[in-house]
């Protein structure tokens, strides 16, 4: 039995049956929301049932996901999600916050948030009988697909802009995917992927274009609900800081909260704060102008995972903030590098795109957009080892000393 009832277009609100469409709205190309059977779900399951699950991965939320139980026990596919939450007291105090959580997505099998979408998509691909999955990626989505495909024996073809960091590309190749570097940007790779999927009959995982990516990403929102909202009786709405490139992560997290609200399991909607790099801020620019018309920019930032000209989930990403009394913020590359250092100093090592979310919180706190009593959560989307060049830029070079105690004394000022 199908676990979802169909789709609704985020642009025109038209609804489609599950067998009527595969990717986007045929009328206007809008991204589709997957519709769950809310009344059936609320009859069959409850927050208590979910909380009782002994599956400490994203799959504990299977009742709320539009796929059936995957096989693949004992593989990395079953280890995605249920990522740790940290409460760093020094970092919170420095920002004047009483309650601060960091959610660390670097513990996912391929070391980024993207595993959540790719795990679900690999399962979905098997359900629709696809032999090959193809995706465009600036690095992490490809690594996630390559890793999950390798874990389950699925064939994956991945198109990456040739400017992607070398360690990221190496990771895809180690997983054994067919990796091709496109002489063009992410947007060019994205368009070619869709053409190839149509031409060769492959299943296209492209972020946001495939309606199931947001469903996988939704699991982080469900975890925030279970790990924070159900545990702590927060007096004020939780402020969640999310870095935004295509906007699919923030849209997926918003979808989680909307599904939970529809089920009657969430009273106080968290506020979603989208953070973009100043040089790749298409959604933040639209937010600041108060319009829903998102125009492409010529993206330029060291945070390669959010360096996007035209966000593929821009509209839903914008609404994630406007519909939850959140906001959009932009941060400079220098602020991102500073955030890498601040997070490092509490034991969390992240890549630039992840640090951007924290830099956004710093900015919001400094600007008084966030008050002492606002509980805040920063989603840290990717591991620091993904981009060692940026880490080197953030940290600088270590001093070289002669191999003597005197050398050590001088260097440490003892
Ligand atoms: C993809 C990615 C993002 C941004 O997600 P979008 O859905 O493109 O907005 C942020 N951080 C990291 C590490 C990513 O890989
Ligand atoms: Zn439409």
Structure description:
It contains 15 helices and 13 strands. It is α/β, with parallel strands linked by helices and 414 residues long. Helix 4 crosses helix 8, helix 5 packs parallel to helix 6 and helix 8 packs across helix 9. The longest helix has 18 residues. The protein is globular. The site of pyridoxal-5'-phosphate (PLP) has 19 residues, from helix 9 and helix 13.
Give me the CATH architecture of one domain, please.
Answer: 3-Layer(aba) Sandwich
Q: Give the biggest sheet.
A: 6 strands, mixed
> Beta-strand percentage?
5-15%
Work out the number of β strands.
13
Q: What is the helix tally?
A: 15
List unreliable stretches of 5+ residues: none
Task: Write out the distinct hetero groups bound to the structure.
Answer: pyridoxal-5'-phosphate, zinc ion
What is the residue-mean pLDDT, rounded to a whole number?
96
């Amino acid at each position: 039995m199908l676990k979802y009832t169909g789709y609704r277009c985020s642009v025109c609100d038209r609804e489609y049956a599950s067998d009527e469409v595969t990717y986007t709205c045929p009328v206007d190309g809008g991204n589709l929301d997957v519709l769950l059977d809310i009344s059936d779900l609320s009859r069959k399951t409850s927050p208590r049932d979910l909380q009782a699950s002994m599956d400490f991965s994203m799959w504990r939320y299977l009742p709320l996901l539009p796929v059936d139980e995957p096989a693949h026990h004992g593989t990395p596919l079953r280890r995605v999600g249920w990522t740790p939450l940290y409460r760093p007291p020094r970092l919170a105090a420095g920002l004047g916050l009483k309650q601060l959580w960091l959610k660390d997505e670097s513990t996912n099998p391929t070391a980024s948030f993207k595993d959540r979408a790719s795990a679900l998509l690999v399962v979905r691909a098997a359900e629709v009988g696809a032999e090959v999955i193809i995706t465009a990626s600036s690095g992490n989505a490809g690594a996630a697909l390559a890793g999950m495909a390798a874990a389950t024996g699925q064939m994956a073809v991945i198109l990456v802009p040739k400017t992607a960091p070398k360690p990221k590309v190496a990771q895809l190749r180690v997983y054994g995917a067919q990796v091709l570097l496109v002489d063009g940007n992410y947007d060019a790779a994205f368009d070619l992927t869709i053409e190839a999927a149509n031409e060769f009959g492959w299943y296209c995982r492209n972020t946001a274009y495939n309606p199931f990516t947001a469903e996988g990403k939704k699991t982080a929102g469900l975890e925030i609900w279970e790990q924070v909202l159900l545990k702590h009786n927060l007096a004020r709405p939780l402020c969640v800081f999310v870095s935004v490139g295509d906007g699919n992560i923030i849209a997926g997290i918003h979808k989680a909260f909307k599904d939970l609200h529809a089920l009657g399991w969430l009273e106080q909607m968290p506020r979603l704060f989208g953070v973009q790099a100043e040089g790749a801020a298409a959604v933040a620019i639209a937010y600041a102008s108060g319009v829903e018309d998102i125009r492409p920019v010529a993206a330029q930032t060291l945070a390669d995972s959010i360096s996007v000209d035209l966000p593929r989930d821009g509209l839903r990403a914008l609404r994630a903030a406007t519909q939850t009394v959140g906001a959009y913020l932009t941060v400079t590359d220098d602020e991102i590098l500073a955030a890498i250092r601040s997070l490092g100093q509490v034991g969390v090592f992240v890549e630039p795109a992840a640090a951007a979310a924290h830099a956004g919180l710093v900015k919001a706190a400094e600007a008084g957009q966030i008050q002492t009593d606002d509980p805040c959560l920063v989603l840290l989307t990717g591991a620091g080892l993904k981009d060692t060049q940026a880490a080197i830029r953030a940290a600088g070079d270590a001093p070289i000393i002669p191999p003597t105690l005197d050398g050590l004394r001088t260097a440490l000022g003892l």
